[in-house]
Automatic annotation (TrEMBL):
UniProtKB keywords: Membrane, Transmembrane, Transmembrane helix
Residue ranges of the TM segments: 53-72
InterPro entries in the record: CU044_5270-like
Protein name as catalogued: Uncharacterized protein
Domain of life: Bacteria
Upper lineage: Bacteria, Bacillati, Actinomycetota, Actinomycetes, Streptosporangiales
Length: 382
């Protein structure tokens, strides 16, 4: 099928096919199309303007909080072409289409099980104490939340070590004597791009640490803690979910944030959708509702196919969040529509090193496992 016919076929797929609960033929057609586009890259050039900034509070997606001033200049990106075809600008799926297709797919996932399991790899970058090069640190976290009252859950954590972030950083690290331990002064200036480590960083990976969780430990949503009983009240329809989240957000005191409260609440609503998709133990219908609600929110733009920090292919969705007045962070969500999976969440910022070189600082959380399982964890050993 050529690209023109593909576009004409897509035009017959209505949004209602995707926003409804049923996986209709039209929705499945669009889902299949997006999957095929993931397999075969396309080449074209796009002019992109950053979307409306979503103001709000920084989510603790990893161990470090990051902020950076952003400019509003246009940018150009290029995407590889499909051999032998010409693709029009309208052939790329929009952010809304990607999110709605993911909603259709995630509805097919199990809605219950003995345990809610998540496994993530968190990575973050920071400069060395002399600001001569950039380091990347990592941590793996695996959590098993037991659904049965009184049954224990488990939280397994391992530090993955620290290394130079890029070959250029490795060269600077070698020139500095190839240290394997980094100690940071408490008063180090970081421009608020990362938190100063309170303990020395070590190149060597650490041992796994295991923590037993109380039964009713579930997590947080929209600034408030959650119990198992409360998760059952989370709606599985988009508008009802919006009302539920806005009610929780309305109880927050945002007067001290220094940000416009309406915009701050809009950002927390977006964050709530992402958390329901990626961490909160809910049914597949509720996760689908979160995707559909996310698809209705402004400021999210599609930027084509990409790879996540673990090398997996998905669709890139990007938005801005304001951490402090005038300070923005660029956030990328990597989504796999075919499986309804959020693969990763990445924040990218820039800083200047001591020699004047501009360097990227990224914070990422990659989701290896998210969902219900009938498997039972073996109590891990330290």
């Amino acid at each position: 099928m050529n690209s023109d016919q593909l576009f004409k076929d897509r035009a017959r797929v209505r949004d209602e096919d995707l926003t409804g609960r049923a996986s209709t033929a039209g929705a499945d057609a669009l889902l299949a199309e997006i999957v095929s586009m993931e397999r075969v890259p396309a080449r074209r050039r796009l002019r992109l303007s950053p979307g409306r900034a979503l103001l709000g509070l920084a989510a603790a997606a990893a161990a470090v909080a990051v902020i950076v001033p952003m400019t509003s200049s246009d940018r150009t990106i290029s995407v590889e072409p499909r051999p032998g075809t010409s693709v029009s600008a309208t052939a790329e799926p929009t952010a809304r289409q990607i999110l709605l297709a993911a909603a259709v797919a995630v509805e097919k996932a199990p809605s219950s099980g003995d345990y809610w399991r998540t496994a993530t790899v968190n990575r973050w970058m920071l400069t060395d104490p002399t600001r001569s090069y950039v380091l990347e640190a990592g941590r793996s976290i695996e959590t098993w939340l037991a659904r049965k009252p009184g049954a224990p859950g488990w939280h397994v954590r391992q530090e993955l070590g620290v290394k130079p972030a890029t070959p250029q950083d490795e060269a600077a690290w070698r020139a500095a004597g190839s240290p394997t331990v980094w100690r940071y002064p408490e008063d180090m200036k970081t421009e608020n791009l990362f938190a100063v480590p309170s303990r020395p960083l070590e190149a060597q990976a650490g041992e796994r640490t295991v923590e037993r969780l109380d039964w009713d430990t579930v997590g947080d949503l929209a600034g408030e803690s959650l119990t198992w009983q409360q998760t059952r009240a989370i709606p599985d329809e988009p508008e009802a979910l919006r009302h539920y989240l806005e009610e929780r957000i309305g109880r927050l005191d945002l007067t001290g944030s220094g940000l416009d409260e309406e915009e701050a609440r809009a950002h927390i609503l977006l964050r709530g959708c992402v958390d329901i998709i990626s961490t909160v133990p809910v049914s597949s219908g509720t996760r689908a509702a979160a995707y559909r609600l996310l698809a209705s929110l402004p400021g999210i733009r599609a930027e084509g196919e990409t790879t996540d920090p673990l090398g997996r292919r998905g669709q890139s969705l990007r938005y801005q969040e304001e951490i402090e007045p005038g300070l923005f962070s660029e956030v990328t969500l990597v989504v796999e529509p075919a499986g309804g999976r959020l693969l990763a969440e990445v924040r990218t910022n820039t800083t200047r090193l001591a020699d004047g070189r501009q360097a990227e600082l990224r914070v990422s959380r990659s989701f290896e496992e998210v969902g219900w399982t009938g498997e039972r964890p073996e109590p891990p050993r330290n």
